[in-house]
Known about the structure:
Blueprint: H1 10-24, H2 35-63, E1 79-90, E2 93-104, E3 109-111
Antiparallel strand pairs: 1-2, 2-3
Amino acid sequence: MELTTGSMSSxxxxxxxxxxxxEMGAIxxxxxxxxxxxxxxxxxxxxEVTRNVMAKVLALQSSETQASxxxxxxxxxCCDKPPQGKLLETRRGxxxxxxxxxxxxxxxxxxxxxxxxxxx
Length: 120
Ligand SMILES: [Zn+2]
């Protein structure tokens, strides 16, 4: 994943969102679009962008976890399992992302270190 944005400002990112809204035809005929349509479609697209941002940050966070984890319940060393897709309900809707998975054989439990704060 490319982590640098160069000199792109939030104003330039907004320009991209505006172009996307117009390309999608979400606003319809711009000259006669109502404030309600403009607001609804802007929020809808930005919520989609926000969900994508959260999924990417969560996947990045997961990729930075240590290769070997201790079980938060019993302290035993967990074994790594293949990454899994995880679905979270957020304030902006459902977010699907890839996360590391660790398994404690003693407790017979799987842990998802990137989603601790969500209580998953
Ligand atoms: Zn355990």
